[in-house]
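Objective 1.3, modelling of assemblies. Example input:
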Amino acid sequence: MKRVLLSLWYVVISLFLVTLVQSSGLPLSDAVTAQPASIDHAGLQTLHVRYKTLVKQLTQLMPTQPYILVDTARNHLYIKRGDQVLLDALASTGSGTILDKPGDSKGQWIFDTPRGEFTVQSRLTNPVWVKPDWAFIEEGLEVPKSQADRLESGVLGEYALGFGKGYFIHGTLYTRLLGKNVTHGCIRLNDDDLKSVYRLAKVGTPIMIF
Amino acid sequence: MIFLCAVLSILLSLTSVSWAAEPDVTSTVGITDSGALQEATRVLEEELKLAARPQTYMIIDLASNVILIKGRGVELHRIPIESWSASHLDQLMTAHRLRERPPVNRRKIDPAVGAEQEPISLGDMPTTYTLLFSSPLRVLVFSNTNGNPWQWTVQRGRAWWRRLTVWGNMLTGDQTLSPPSLDLTVSREHAQSLAWTVVEGMPFLIRRSTP
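Predicted structure (tokens):
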């Protein structure tokens, strides 16, 4: 019994030492994860040409015009052209909170800003907010039957850029909340930054959100 | 018996489970480095397919120790990798789609209380989690423990358990039970940032290191 315990102890100590070696950044073995096939000089040249061609093809997919980049974790909106940053604006993005849909035991709204690639689909001046159902429900109000009762002016700023499914880049009355995740999925900016975005972005301008 | 166990343990630890060495951060693709060039070309071929579509995607670049968030070939954000280890990465050839995001503790709005309730933030994101993909791949993300002994023990325990499972499968000759696996250690903030960014269905590419 004593011998078995001692043997186990040796195993544990050995594993511990190996872990220490690894966490200290020293190599454990010369094992590799990508085993290259043997290749001669001509093959290497061909591969190099192939690589350069692929790099060129990838470059051709990159946006040549200004594009909008939104960092939802740090609440920043950038307009970039290539590597050049044309605008760095503090923003507010989705809060990530949820709201139950009344009368639907499984349904709920999730207030995230969508991640991925989108394009500017519409450019509006003096937009009017058509309040969706959740805007009434989260305030504990009854959802109106008339469309006219949903309209609210002056809350979205002077401009709004739609990028699909009801999401917009727009202004805000709550500038003190810029830099925080407080919205229902839209991207809010202050008036000056919104004006710059409206000026630089056209319909079709890519919006990359992460 | 004792000697045998000790030797066996050390041999097991050092055998070809392809626990990769800490890679060279300055690794670049050079014309004389055929292995790196082949791997970079393979990844580029896959990336071209992803970049041709309107989506964001991730490249875990083990040769440069960095995770890249990209869209249309443009680098949107980068997360440095502090250390990594891997097994069976030779099986990875194409893009892998994330099955689901790491769990997030979302707060529920109570209309009776009012609309202004605490939103989620980066600080709510997990610091240690597993990313599972539609094709067999498991990525364990650890955050730097900054000397916290409890977190260090838990993380090492998980890593040990995974290795023991792989070794067990090797000894029984059943390597099919061990899917490709990658352990990444990043800073706490970067682990949370990664958890925040990934979304269901997001494609991942892995660029492997070469000798």
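The domain at 20-102+122-207 of chain B is CATH 2.40.440 (L,D-transpeptidase catalytic domain-like).
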